[in-house]
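Retro notes
What went well: the complex prediction finally ran end to end.
Inputs used:
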Amino acid sequence: MSLPVRTFDAIVVGAGGSGLRAALELARAGLKVAVLSKVFPTRSHTVAAQGGIAAPLANSTEDHWHWHMYDTVKGSDYLGDQDAIEYMCRRAVEVVVELEHMGMPFDRLENGKIYQRPFGGHTQDYGSSKMAMRACAAADRTGHAMLHTLYQQNLRANTQFFVEWMALDLLRDAQDGTVLGVSALEMESGEVTLFRAHATLLATGGAGRLFSASTNAFINTGDGLGMAARAGIPLQDMEFWQFHPTGVHGAGVLITEGVRGEGGYLLNKDGERFMERYAPNAKDLASRDVVSRAMTTEIKEGRGCGPEADHVLLKLDHLGADVINLRLPGIREIAIKFANADPIREPIPVVPTVHYQMGGIPANYLGEVVAPAGGNDDAVVAGLYAAGECSCVSVHGANRLGTNSLLDLLVFGKSSGEQMVKAIRAQPAAQRELSKDAGERTRARLARLDAAHSGERVAAVGNDLRRTMQAHCGVFRFPELLTEGVEKMKAIAERAGRVSIDDKSKIFNTARIEALELDNLVETALATAVSAEARRESRGAQTRSDYPERDDANWLKHTLWYKDGDRLAYKPVHLKPISVEAFEPKVRTY
Amino acid sequence: MKITIYRYDPDRDARPYMKDYEVALESTDRMLLDVLGRIKAQDDGVSFRRSCREGVCGSDAMNINGKNGLACITKIADLPAHVTLRPLPGLPVIRDLIVDMTQFFTQYESIKPYLINDEPPPERERLQSPEAREALNGLYECILCACCSTACPSFWWNPDKFVGPAGLLQAYRFIADSRDQATAARLDDLEDPYRLFRCHTIMNCVDVCPKNLNPTQAIGNIKDMMVRRAV
């Protein structure tokens, strides 16, 4: 029986910040666009972003896009592509001002301009000790405000949404590999449809649920990454995972860096403000990788807090109730609920917690997915685009700066939308026919789940996967653990192919969804473990005990992991910006 | 801990039923959503929505011992030893604790939930005073979880005609925004025996809002504006 086919000009998979920004561009251009999301758009994980969005508006301190570019290149530990970083920083003011025009409820300064706060690694004058106030904020709910604003604008533009439809696999032309669309499961009915379009954007977010302790939502299972990997597209720089310094101890829930931007700081069990030792200039506002390593070192050396000496404290009571209630109300709510601590009176117990995936589906700054072909490292994969956390553009390199993620969503959501509009208009209206077996991979995956009546539970395999990642790919990485981690992950991948679910219902079968998500987590976990084991240096978020230094001579290059053959390749970093001089790699201190 | 859950799978069940679960809690379990996770590990057919697990995405609204709330920020310690979970009242059930929220979102969409300002935008941000921005506090934070509207008897009776507390809160969010120019049209749209005036200040919405927002007050403010423009 053949699967039903629906045809659009463009498909956007994912309705977080980048997907919605791209969809807006497409809908406003009058194209027929389908946005597929496995959750209602405002439930996407962008909603949980707190502290701000970077743009050198210079509303409170002097600032410049080139300073922002310098901070981003340095923050990336020089692994970021400088052309893409220049592109992002140059468009920051434009996309943030646009967002304000759309109705975003930014906080305001007395003169009516957008309120901006300091953030980790944001400096004036190319890394001077003066911090730049660059993070545009709506209290500590910036992501919530932004996601709702973008959804609202899409309602106005009449974007067509397919809510609670989970995309499962990419459809590619058997001859030339052009991406022709996706297969997707309607969760309510359990039926699969093939979506066909000239252009398909993956905007599916990260895979932060790869680790046991994560700030991420349950839905962040790397769906776009799994789809790309299964379709033969490599995943780039997957060894680089950001540990956010301040996840609530025990619960993992995020406490924004904006707390430190507003003047909060970290304390060890001796009441020492220990970041002064690790980053004499920026202190608590050093880059996230630097702060997470410092915290982990304090805990390892016995200066952690609490009965288990397993966390540190984030102090902010000195900011006063007024500032906390005005600028950090959501944090107060979270601390009271998840840490039993009212930050107006007491510090919040925090630990570094997995937060963000710097790697992803390789894409250029126009959103086009690229993969090596015919001697070109960056050959465009026809028909396929990627934006947001699932992509690797690469503007974050080996470590992302706080507030650059929301900026990434807007800039590359918009640029990919623009590029898709151009590409669609340049094509003949008639779309290519899907091959007869177009949905075969998807049908086989679902048929296996339907037929399996014995086998391990999805949750059991998933928990082992998360525990393995947590133990083997942490803030500090060790050679034996990395090697062992690869072997364990391969074994877990085998087990994942044999899971079974009891629930065989067609109707809103969340057990089936979780089993399908596990496939995506497995691809992402394998990519991470294999890439991390192979990179024999310490850079940004990857710190190895056996190779403690950055090694630009051998490792200033991007990793590419291919599912087929579990194989690695490398490609050069784009060290040349679009219009300015390159920032040469130098020793990174804060 | 004993949990009784409303179960209904139209694929298999002739009618809904209540099913009991005994759950052995671990020391790390803090919220009701953690308990639901343990139940799902025993019985993978138990169906509910969830995502952020920190009270900002609005996925896991349900009726907890008779009162609407979010499972992810309902503390186990605050619950009695026996908890009964039902889907949000008043909306069609798709399966178990998952309801069809179409009516809820249709009402939200009906108030034009987006900034309307058709003047050409300036080169930089539109200016707004801190006081004007503060007027949006308590309004823009809504997470569209539907706890309020599905606790509202007026919405139960007229879900197709009464906007409901969530939609009206958002209507006022845009009326209150100094940058929005459509106040008159927004008030005209709500001046109707059903859309706004079915609110009888029962205040269930205020009682259940997991974000401590106050739709009744927002509705009162809209009514005030209508009276003031009429005199």
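What we learned: Chain B touches chain A through 57 residues (CB under 8 Å).
What to try next: split runs per interface for comparison.
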